[in-house]
Amino acid sequence: MKLFRIFSLSLFALTAGSLSAGELTIATVNNGHMIEMQKLTGKFEEAHPGITVNWVTLEEGVLRQRVTTDITTKGGQFDVMTIGMYEAPIWGSRGWLEELTFDDSYDVNDILPAMRGGLSHEGKLYAAPFYGESSMIMYRKDLVDAAGMTIPDNPTWGHIQDVAAAITNKDEGVYGICLRGKPGWGDNAAFITTMANSFGARWFDENWKPQLDSAAWRHAIDFYLNLMNNYGPPGSSANSFNEILALFNEGKCGMWIDATIAASFISDPRQSKVADNVAFAQAPVAVTHRGANWLWAWALAVPAGTKQADDAKKFIQWATSKEYIELVAETNGWASVPTGTRQSTYDNPNFQSAAIFADAELAAILSANPSNSTQDPTPYTGVQFAAIPEFQAIGIAVGQQFSAALAGDVTAEEALANAQEAADREMSKAGYY
Questions:
Q1: How far apart (Å, rounded) are the C-alpha atoms in residues 416 and 199?
Q2: pTM for this entry
């Protein structure tokens, strides 16, 4: 088996044109399933003589920035990009991505409709889901039981606060709840948006006017800050998925509300010290269930103009196929396969028996509705984001304000005022009003 290579950041200076034919450069996020894909790359190379794969592996926020810069400037540094439901339809509509078509063995109809639809524009698929996710509650049942508490599906946020108070034990380094605080539209802003949705908030009204100065947003942010300051771990303003995953696996988090994909890691005794005690429930709600849990896919796409388009599509077909899922199952067990993409995975009795989270994960994915994610009407689609080009800049600016409030650098009122101003400026500049 050929060893896969992970390029250092210095190789951003390279362009696709400087690589030889048959050499693919792939940009991806440093999440567990992507790391496993890199380990299995030799299997692809063995099956496709003449194609070699080079990896650029980045933290989530940096990945988003790098691939966005490359696609908008036509930099040509990557042959395959890891993107999501926000980018795929927007970039596809602009002609920035190759349409993806595969042979019949791929069985595109096996991909969950929510995932296929979210990665398409006008019926054309522009990215193939490597794994898909919603969000849900993941918790230590031993701590909750010992406190005489329960966590039903869709509990109120008030109930979550009560549980967090009951199971926090700072003397022993156990915090009642761990939530994202690291700034970014796909980091803290993604989670906080689902919370705000359930409190009745929305990003924009029907005339595209930002609504971050609304009472619903203020209620949600006040609740979030109070919850984290009282029952969250120190340094939460720097925590995203991987940081909290490490905390949870060490037994330091009583509850974690985040991507369903985390369930496969925290329930794996090879990775988690509390694997035998984890349980799952559907996302918390406040005044509405709408938009309480997000919908996302990390997906693989081919930027238009790459000279390696055919080979890139061969790699994507391999990495997002039923056969790849079976390869991971053979290598690491069915509980470790990338999930959230194919109905056949959930229909497989081997997966059902190995993955204690299977039913909860699928229920969360199926319940998320990007077309109806807020209590009041909006002109946008998306649960944890608004599917417009301007949202990325807005979400980054707003996420920075939320993180600063969590760090104590600004008050909640100041953060929301600054966020409203930043959003209003971007929308006005873009000509929405």
A1: 15
A2: 0.91
